[in-house]
């Protein structure tokens, strides 16, 4: 995997970035080396780039590019970055062997910033252990199997963020409630009055405006979308300028979702907020939206890296993945179920209900 290695000034062994710090730690002697340059306000990390310019005539300057050696995993489709002299390896997302001979060199948009690892591997394991103990209906062999094979790998995942302004023209219906008194006869033949709510609808049309800042889109297909979104939120206010020392000892994945594809997904994320704005603009007690037409302007983007701990394991041939947000410790995971345990539990519940009914009938006696 793409792992920047810097030598320890004390023993010449490899150093890796130490989570939660601004420096490197030696794997052999534990010597800590602070970054040579002082960390300053994240200027490049927060610089917005014009989306239309990149989509229409992308011609980045050399300093805006980065060259990586990438191989596509045949098991899950991930695209981890490799070292030029790497001869073998396993995919960090599914643990399948990767064919390094098929690696390709690609020039990519350089990340502007990143969120550095703050949660250590041991802390990720503790979160995982707590999560594992709370699993219901897990196969008996699962905990032993995972404990034996569990290994967390630190990975920087690629993300896009998008900013834009929107103007949406809409058509719809506004519903205003009112009440009418209705008289009916009850079962005793008596007249009873009650208030019945009704809605008076009328057609409406209008125009609304929304502003969006840092709409975050994962630029990877290597992990389930649902799990990635459930790892959020990310503390983007703490993003720092891209610095290769932060990558030392960790895997970096190249983006698989390009800028255009990412913006399409970002539009889907924006849609609920636009609809809420329309509902407020329509007013009344009820609203219906029949059509919308949205125009986007001032579109900008950033390319960022976010840190996760990933562990993959197989149970009865099926792949399951565990993700830990390396900023917050939030864990999301896939797990198998023991249908035998579920079935036995259901039978036990049914038996208890049956026993309860029996004793109720016995105690109630004849009518």
Compact summary:
This is Primosomal protein N' (Replication factor Y)-superfamily II helicase. By secondary structure, the chain is α+β, with helices and mostly antiparallel strands.
Shape, principal axes of CA atoms: extended
* Rounded average pLDDT: 80
What can be said about the biggest beta sheet? 9 strands, mixed
Radius of gyration: 28 Å
**Helix-strand sequence:** EEEEEHEEEEHHEEHEEHEEEH
| Helix-strand category | alpha+beta
Span between termini: 78 Å
- Tally of separate helices: 6
Instruction: Give me the count of strands.
Output: 16
Q: How many domains would you count in the coordinates?
A: 1
- Indicate the percent of residues in helices: 10-25%
Low-confidence runs: none
Strand composition percent: 35-45%
Keywords: Membrane, Transmembrane, Transmembrane helix
Organism: Enterovibrio norvegicus
Protein name: Primosomal protein N' (Replication factor Y)-superfamily II helicase
Transmembrane segments: 342-360
List the defining traits of the structure above.
single chain, 367 residues, alpha+beta, four-stranded antiparallel β-sheet, membrane, transmembrane, Primosomal protein N' (Replication factor Y)-superfamily II helicase, transmembrane helix
